[in-house]
Amino acid sequence: MRHFLHFTGFIILAAAVASALGVAVMLLWNWLTPDLFGFAEIGFLQALGLFALCKLLIGGLGFHGRGPGRHFHKNKMEKINRFRELHDKWLNMTPEERRDFVKRRKAFFGSQCCGAQTSEKQEESGD
């Protein structure tokens, strides 16, 4: 019985939220688009359909654990872990190893890498 009440409450809440969103879309559409673009006014069901279409095209269905978005978080954690590894490696380098590392990076990436512009400015100013 308790699960039935939770389910019923969820259905009622979902219907209330959908109704509120439909009314909001309808009011905004009818307020803005006829004057700006010359479009016709829409009704409540058309507003719900428009909201559902926009949600599907832009926001997906809201399943956060599935789909292409889950790979983003995995890749983000991999990048963070890789950064931590490089940071630990940098901290364990001697000053001479750090200079060699920066020289190799500058040679590979060009003058835009590793603060090359700031070091050139420091050399010109005599620091």
What structural class do the secondary elements suggest? mainly alpha
Q: How many helical stretches?
A: 5
Mean pLDDT score:
80
The end-to-end distance, rounded to whole angstroms, is: 78 Å
Provide the β-strand percentage band. Answer: under 5%
- Please outline the major beta sheet: none
Helix content: over 70%
- In sequence order, what are the helices and strands, one letter per element? HHHHH
Q: Count the beta strands.
A: 0
Uncertain runs are 118-123
- The shape, in one word, is elongated
Q: Report Rg.
A: 28 Å
Description:
- This protein has helices spanning 2-37, 44-59, 69-91, 95-109, 116-125.
- The chain has 127 residues and is mostly helical.
- The protein is elongated and about 70 Å long.
- Mean pLDDT is 80; it is low at 118-123.
Question: What is the element layout, followed by pairings?
Answer:
Layout: H1 2-37, H2 44-59, H3 69-91, H4 95-109, H5 116-125
Task: Supply database-style keywords.
127 residues, mainly alpha, 79% helix
Would you summarize the structure shown here?
The protein has about 130 residues and is mainly α. The chain has helices at about 1-35, 45-60, 70-90, 95-110, 115-125.
